[in-house]
Amino acid sequence: MEYLIGQRWVSHADAQLGLGVVVEVEPRRITLSFPAVGEERTYAIENAPLTRLRFKVGDHINTVEGVELVVTDVHEQHGLLMYTGTDHHEEQIAVSELELDAFVQLTTPQQRLLNGHFDKNSDFALRVATLEHTDRLQRSPASGLMGSRTSLLHHQLYIANEVGQRHAPRVLLADEVGLGKTIEAGMIIHQQLLTGRASRVLVLLPPSLMHQWLVEMLRRFNLHFALFDIDRLAQMDEGNPFEAEQLVLCSMEMFEANDHLQQLALDAGWDLVVVDEAHHLHWSEDEPGEDYRFVESLSQVSPGLLLLTATPEQIGQASHFARLRLLDPSRFHDLEAFKEQELEYRQMSAMADALEAGTVPEDLPADLDRSLPAGELVNQLLDRHGTGRVLFRNTRAAVEGFPQRILHRHPLPVPEEYAHAQVDLIERLHPELPYYDDSWLDFDPRVEWLVKTLKELRPEKVLVICAHATTAVALEHYLHMRAGIRSSAFYEGLSIIERDRAAAYFADETNGAQTLVCSEIGSEGRNFQFSRHLILFDLPMNPDLLEQRIGRLDRIGQQHDVEIHVPYLEGTPQETLLDWYDRGLDLFRDSCSAGTMILETFRDRLVEQLKTRTEAFDTLLVDSADFTHRTREELREGRDRLIERNSCRRDVADALINEIEGLESGDTLENYLEALCEAFGVDQEFHSEQTLILRPSEHMLTGHFPYVGDEGTTVTFSRDKALAREDMEFVTWEHPMIHEAMDMVHSTELGNAALGTIKLKGVAAGTMLLEALFTVNCVAPKSLQVERFLPLTPMRLLVDARGKELANLVPHERLNSLVEKVKKPTALAIIKQVHREVDAKMSLAKAQAEVRLKEVLTDAENLMRSELGAELARLEALREVNPSIREEELENLRYRIEECAIHIAHANLQLQALRLIITT
Ligand SMILES: Nc1ncnc2c1ncn2[C@@H]1O[C@H](COP(=O)(O)OP(=O)(O)OP(=O)(O)O)[C@@H](O)[C@H]1O
């Protein structure tokens, strides 16, 4: 037999490899690649255990593109087989054998059974359990949400569930500072990946957060992101580097003034793009920034887009709108209309209240269908006239359980040296700035105060933030060299690795620094909640930035009240600004989502007062306090209430938490993992309650078991333990260890044919029972995501000699406990005798399964039509008011609905496992 590159062969010694493809032919050796298992094998041509795979007319074949064909013609072209066949649309398609899917079922369980290839009954039970668990997980409302190493927090689970389930989610995650947006994004990414809705993800963020993200994704979600920086890109020589990885983290800065790199990122194609600290995207009506335009281009090529910012309006309302438009251009297409709608939020909120209380308000907008159920009407109201379904924002007030913030004001005298200089406002707020040397350290009283305070607070960790890198560097140097305080600096001049080292030194409990002195870049995104003392060496001119600074400590995980210390020079603009934030906005005690808007309202008056404080300052304070109070009220009643409605529904979150806790309690997973370990030859040892040590043994079934290295792995099933002990793997149904092991069962023949005997009272010896397990097999392009409507749906049948169905009478678990193994020679003798009977019973079982399949497919189609139909109805309704929604978008969705229907209609049964049982 002649081998040619591109031909498809099967290893009959190892059918689990799937369909191989010849990749290299040498005089005596041949190499095949087996894409299904990602392996290459080289054989001696003389005795290669290979069989050429040749399909016949009438066979069903699957292509790598996910198309199923019924073969109508086969012919050879230059040694390769060309198949012609018809697809689900009755269209004729020609494919070369090279395009065949590598996952082929070469022998059916029936053939294996009748040829005497049995597995152990425990393997059969494992296969059945695997299929049932897979189906249960596919259906679970918490699917995709149970695998993260996080506490189960209502607001995060709600958002992750809402967003993660969307097809191509596009949302703005705008929870207040420190409430867990990174974690929410991680949950969404995790869920999208796990459910197959996304496979390529690009995260763009400020350089100071890269490492933190990398670590959070790994330790909390087992997501291995590749970190791209200029150095790494320089090392990659050929091709598009972004195509080499599926999950990529990189800094936004890297793309600055680099059109070529931007184009490479655009060309690589993504399912989901995430932009952290998205308020940085520069935008103005006349001239959007380069970063904004880049994200805009990405948003056009990526179906999914997550923008993260705690302060969405930091750069103003128009800029906020521009970001919303990136997410949902259909909904947010007109800034003026958006502004007008904002004015009506209070009214909309009242309408939503009324709807929930059971009345349909008279003035309900005309485009809503009054006959719909109240819940649906509320959703439509929020979507079309409220804040839209793209914006999620939880507040400390709504989440509850946060510690208090306590302000300590420390007035200090103005030194002689500062009294004269002071040219512009910036210099008066930061009088050290004009000094090119460090001489100011000797007379600025804030420095002496800082040293004294740090010594008093010792050994408490203290975070110090100031606006400028030069100030931070000088201060840290002073503390370190002249005051003997263990400290570290964190500023933009350091490389990413140096910054992370500095942060890690600060975080180290035993030998770490007492204090970290940060420039403004340390005020964003970083996690410093292990400390409770914050010193603001100066104050920023933006309330949102102040909120960001406080948010480093006041975030999830903070165990104490947050002590905020502000040293200031008396009688200078520093005091005026502090007074305005403190007494005007009450910002130290309570966060406020309208900080920028309040600043804009009073900016001129404030700047006047900062320049020269007069009696009018008291009026400014009163006016600011009054305005802030009213704005807070207004937001609470209007916009924030609408957003809150969108951002967390306690009952839904409760149900999710119950579901996850239910799946974690009990020992189902533990027992399943034990069964996996037994089947694959992994040793287990008790470590402590709910915790095991797994080690590879000498009789492993395959060379490797996921996540079990040579040294062994400690795994815990307890969420609490996993949160405290990062050295242990937190094993859930969604941990990659379980996931990959389940795949190993699915994709091989393990346990798909078995034989056993049982004693059943009242049943004559020698009676034959056939236990068959079918699943629904739907071949469809991945992009349609048909499995969300049509999960695996295992169907178990147990037929006796007369074809009677006994599955309910004798459950699978009962059979497992009764069944006994049969010696191989006896089994082979039995098989010989029952050959024909097995065939006959199989036909009966299959016929019964076909009946059930019909119902399953009808339900799946109905579900699909109702879910996708609702999406279509929304777009159609929005199109009425928004001409920018293109007809193609609607057409596209209609096409998707019909495509799904066709593939559902063509789904068939797959026999997954077969067991022959003889009574004795
Ligand atoms: N569910 C959770 N379980 C355990 N820790 C959590 C959870 N959610 C958040 N955290 C921790 O709380 C801190 C804040 O979370 P995160 O960084 O996601 O907040 P953020 O909203 O992105 O903050 P910022 O606004 O500062 O960017 C982090 O240390 C994170 O690890």
Automatic annotation (TrEMBL):
GO MF term list: ATP binding; DNA binding; helicase activity; hydrolase activity, acting on acid anhydrides
Main enzyme class: hydrolase
PANTHER family assigned to the protein according to its UniProt record, in alphabetical order: DNA ANNEALING HELICASE AND ENDONUCLEASE ZRANB3 FAMILY MEMBER, SWI_SNF-RELATED MATRIX-ASSOCIATED ACTIN-DEPENDENT REGULATOR OF CHROMATIN SUBFAMILY A-LIKE PROTEIN 1
Function: Transcription regulator that activates transcription by stimulating RNA polymerase (RNAP) recycling in case of stress conditions such as supercoiled DNA or high salt concentrations. Probably acts by releasing the RNAP, when it is trapped or immobilized on tightly supercoiled DNA. Does not activate transcription on linear DNA. Probably not involved in DNA repair.
InterPro entries in UniProt: DEXDc_RapA, Helicase_ATP-bd, Helicase_C-like, Helicase_RapA, P-loop_NTPase, RapA_C, SNF2-like_sf, SNF2/RAD54-like_C
Residues annotated as domain Helicase C-terminal: 446-618
Name this polypeptide is given: RNA polymerase-associated protein RapA
Sequence ranges assigned to domain Helicase ATP-binding in this UniProt record: 162-330
Amino acids binding ATP: 175-182
The keyword Transcription regulation is assigned to this record: yes
Species lineage: Bacteria, Pseudomonadati, Pseudomonadota, Gammaproteobacteria, Cellvibrionales
Gene: rapA
SUPFAM superfamilies: P-loop containing nucleoside triphosphate hydrolases (SSF52540)
Coiled-coil intervals, chain numbering: none
Family the UniProt entry places it in: Belongs to the SNF2/RAD54 helicase family. RapA subfamily.
Quaternary structure annotation from Swiss-Prot or TrEMBL: Interacts with the RNAP. Has a higher affinity for the core RNAP than for the holoenzyme. Its ATPase activity is stimulated by binding to RNAP.
GO biological processes: regulation of DNA-templated transcription
Short motif DEAH box, span: 276-279
